[in-house]
Task: structure prediction
Amino acid sequence: MTDTAAPETTPGFDLDDFEVRVLAVLIEKAFVTPDSYPLSVNALLTGCNQLTGREPVMSLSESTVQTTLDRLAERGLVTRRQQAGARVAKWEHQIRLRHSLTPPMQAVLAMLMLRGPQTLGEIRARCERMHPFASPSEVEEVLERLGDKQLAMQLPKAPGTKEARYAHLLSGEAAITHAVVDAEAGGAAPRGSRVGELEEEVRRLRQQLDWLTTEFEAFRKQFQ
Result:
């Protein structure tokens, strides 16, 4: 299949948490496991549910990953590939074409999607496997370019902190507002604490509720 450039989509994404995770994993794996990319649904499921390098940790089902891929395909952000001789279909992201993103831009965006708001230093260190940056200023330059495309932004500094954090904009203004509130409150409770565990459970339940609501609406429309 030959890649052809597509026009950029209109700014103003509203991807849900599942869509962000699936898309981010596709971008990440294109860098770190090129020999097995594009990914099957099963490989993508494993990447989405990793216990390391993911904030928050998720526990998605195969059916959830598949329906999420279908939604992303409708937006033109992923495509399905049936390779000759392959027993299963595989998937690849198209955000690099939709927004003309260079490899450094893809790496930074994927890291923000996988780990949430981060400082320049954190982004640089965590992007090492995808794309090594020689200095924080290189990361900052990439973030500025993502900002020009309305794909990322700098958050206000949290009280008592010296460094600003950056966040992706693929989930819309609501997600950014939530991140700002967390920053002003001093951040969420540490993972592993009882409060942190409860906050994590609430996030997961909200994600499941959003998915169930979407699935029910799609099912109901079949009978209208």
